[in-house]
Design brief:
alpha+beta; Threonyl-tRNA Synthetase, Chain A, domain 2; BirA Bifunctional Protein, domain 2; 4 domains; eight-stranded mixed sheet; five-stranded mixed sheet; 38% helix; 24% strand; binds zinc ion
């Protein structure tokens, strides 16, 4: 029973509780303001809130307890886990954790509503996600947007009943037998994978058996009352555990906020984002395409998109030249051994294109792995048949190439897969590269280095491949092949601070040049309480100092997050806000002690001895595909002049000015501007309309008068007439605008 939120009803329970207090020490709880309070062991989050004030107790919805570097969210009615730092979460749309609890609770309400409307529904899994929540359901009937109002109405009824969310724990064996009686395979599977001796359930109400209940770790709101604004938003297909060979499911998305205004603002942003969708604009403006014939997730840059990409690359290449970078070109595949050394293979195998084995034995073993995986997912008789098929294949492989270590008839399928993978380790083959680092390391290692050569800064617009799940692929932002504006810097430990600082400055300058001026920086640091880190604590100390010093020196707003480092070193991530308030993780700078070690890199120091260099990985754009996708949405297709695929268009008023229009067009092209000509018979109004929709920066209207005066009438793409000027003056102001990346020019 809850001791905090309700009175202590049962005297026996109270007596036991009092008794335990005699020998239990009080808990020490540190609050966000730095104050520490002591409270009886067994106290709940609600008890702490009440001890601080009645107002806070009323406003609170959950707690966040941090202990030994781990932070956990708790129901108000849950006892504190021990001495801890505790934040009381209130009904705030600004706190992601408060929203997490709200949205997860709303997911239960939506699940109940769907089950009520469609009783044959089998619930699968319903987590909060960025911007909302979803629930995967197994239901033969398709849910459509027409059903959303009905579902929402049913949800509102549940919310109006102001039901509590109550948790109860059940011993694992009892819980499993209850779930088996219910017969929902997904819940049984979820429960089997959950840890611990007890399993927790949440009832949307105060009594078991009477209300909706769901297997869940929590936490939840104290009741449905704080759910003030919610919406069912979308439905899409998904697969159980993301496996396209398993049961297709329906994923119903919703969102929720504590305040109605927050929901309205969110929906406005979604509408705005839809108008700016890079997939739509990219098609309208002819920037890129994706062909089913080429493959999903593989972006084809069309000429206009390529112009934007090249302009970005030219800009960055120019900046890098000033900073002493050198460009390299390396192949998009490499031997498996290279990635075994780097650690990219086989550990990230699931997100890579399958390895291309060269030897017949390698190919046969790889096929056997795939066959075994196919049948491992099945149960009963089908699995038995599969096991026989795998055994036959293995017998044939061993007949042809000799025994495979560790394999025998009695080995289970999962064990078979492990053994086959071990056997594959010595087989030669290639991998489409998932990262550029190993190639750049090989460039560095191509000759000996002295400390005088360092830093060596190798850059490449290097294309890499990742095999994203088909459900995850979308436009330019979630793809299977992309180009990183990659560079790897090899330096001495002493040079590290300065190199980190210049990479941070380069990233800032790049983002700001593109008008992405609102950002913050996150420093991912090591958490000394965990031991997943490679490299000595001393090196880590130096690297962390280096990135902290760089962040301070460049005067940016930053936060440090312990435990967020890469396992090989600390990193800096740029979190950039676009013009409609969405946050994107863009540029990254990472310090690495691991790869120089794995590849045994060295340089000769001033002492004539061999030393290990430190590596920095950095990419201001990240991926060119994703970055341009984000830019298309940020600018809504209206690119600044220096990036624009078509900068100027010349439109003739009538046949009489057509030859002058042609002359102007030729002069613009000779001046190096990207120009287009419309000297057709159409009226000037529709011509201007078409060119404005094509987001051409400047439209030069030329009639008989302009031809006589050797002038042009300049219009912008918003429909504003800038004025009549000489062609030479227009060209030179365009050049100024391009040169200054939009800070001065034609319209200024
Ligand atoms: Zn839940
Ligand atoms: Zn790298």
């Amino acid at each position: 029973m809850s001791r905090g939120s309700g009175p202590l009803v049962f005297l026996g329970d109270y007596f036991i509780w009092r008794q335990t207090q005699i020998w239990r020490l009080p808990l020490r709880v540190r609050l966000p303001d730095g104050n520490e309070i002591q409270i009886a062991d067994g106290s709940t989050v609600a008890d702490v809130a009440a001890s601080i004030g009645a107002g806070l107790a009323r406003a609170s919805v959950a707690g966040r307890a941090a202990r030994e570097g781990e932070s956990e969210l708790l129901d108000l009615s849950r006892p504190l886990p021990g001495d801890c730092e505790l934040s009381i979460l209130t009904a705030s749309d600004d706190d992601p954790d408060s929203l997490y609890v709200l949205r997860h609770s709303t997911a239960h309400v939506m699940a109940e509503a769907i089950c009520k409307l469609f009783p044959e529904t089998k619930l699968v899994y319903g987590p909060p996600v960025e911007d909302g929540f979803y629930y995967d359901i197994d239901l033969p009937r398709s849910i459509t947007p027409d059903d959303f109002p009905r579902i929402e109405a049913e949800m509102q009824k549940i919310i109006n009943e102001q039901r509590s969310f109550s948790r109860f724990d059940m011993p694992r064996a009892e819980a499993m037998s209850t779930l088996r009686d219910e017969g929902n395979r997904y819940k049984i599977d979820n429960a089997e994978r959950a840890e611990g001796g007890t399993l927790s359930f949440y009832v949307t109400g105060d009594e078991r058996g009477k209300y909706f209940e769901d297997l869940c770790r929590g936490p939840h709101l104290p009741s449905t009352k704080p759910i003030k604004a919610f919406k069912v938003r979308q439905v899409s297909r998904s697969y159980y555990r993301g496996d396209v060979n398993d049961q297709p499911l329906q994923r119903v998305y919703g969102t929720a906020f504590f305040k109605k205004e927050s929901l309205a603002e969110y929906l406005r942003r979604v509408e705005e984002a839809k108008k700016r969708d890079h997939r739509v604009i990219g098609k309208e403006l002819g920037l890129f395409t994706i062909s089913e014939q080429v493959g999903s997730g593989l972006v084809l840059w069309l000429p206009k998109g390529t112009t934007i990409r090249n302009a970005l690359q030219d800009y960055l290449t120019g900046e890098m030249a000033k900073l002493g970078y050198e460009l390299v070109c390396t192949p998009q595949i490499g031997q498996l051994g290279l990635y075994r050394t780097s650690g990219h293979y086989p550990y990230y195998e699931d997100s890579q294109y399958p390895a291309m084995f060269e030897s017949e034995r390698g190919k046969a073993l790889q096929s056997a792995v795939q066959l075994a995986q196919r049948f491992e997912r099945l149960q009963g008789g089908e699995r038995k048949k599969g096991e026989a098929a795998v055994a036959a294949m293995l017998a044939a492989i061993q007949e042809a190439w000799g025994p495979v270590a560790g394999l025998s008839e009695s080995v289970e399928l999962d064990e078979t897969i492990v053994r086959l993978r071990e056997a594959l380790i010595s087989e030669p083959g290639y991998l489409l590269r998932p990262m550029n680092c190993p190639h750049h390391i090989s460039c560095y290692a191509a000759r000996p280095h002295s400390y005088r050569d360092l830093p060596v800064r190798l850059a490449e617009y290097g294309t890499v491949y990742r095999y994203e799940q088909s459900g995850e692929i979308s436009g330019m932002t979630r793809v299977r092949g992309f180009t990183v504006d990659d560079a790897h810097l090899f330096c001495t430990a002493d040079q590290l601070p300065e190199e980190v600082l210049t990479t941070v400055q380069l990233t800032r300058k790049t983002l700001e040049t593109l008008g992405l001026t609102e950002y913050r920086v996150r420093l991912g640091m090591r958490d000394s309480r965990r031991d997943k880190w490679v490299g000595s604590p001393e090196n880590w100390g130096k690297a962390q100092d280096a990135i902290r010093t760089a962040a301070v020196a460049s005067g940016i707003e930053f936060t440090e997050e312990a435990g967020e480092a890469a396992f090989y070193g600390p990193k800096i991530d740029f979190l950039v806000k676009d013009c409609i308030g969405r946050t994107w993780q863009l540029g990254t700078v990472q310090v690495d002690y691991n790869l120089p070690e794995r590849f045994d890199l060295s340089y000769v120091g001033a002492d004539n001895a061999l030393h290990r260099p430190v590596m920095i990985h950095r990419a201001p754009f990240g991926s060119l595909e994703r970055f341009v996708g984000i830019l298309i949405e940020h600018f809504a297709g209206a690119f600044p002049l220096w990036l624009s695929p078509v900068q100027v268009a010349v439109a003739s008023v009538s046949e009489k000015s057509a030859s002058y229009a042609r002359l102007v067009y030729e002069k613009l092209r000779q001046a190096g501007l990207r120009a287009e000509l419309d000297a057709g018979d159409e009226k000037i109004g529709p011509k201007k309309h078409r060119l404005r929709s094509a987001k051409v920066n400047y439209i030069l209207v030329v009639g008989e008068k302009e031809a006589a005066d050797h002038a042009v009438n300049v219009n912008d793409r918003d429909g504003k007439t800038i004025g009549t000027t000489s062609l030479e003056a227009f060209i030179s102001s365009c050049r100024a605008e391009i040169e200054s990346k939009g800070r001065s020019g034609v319209a200024a």
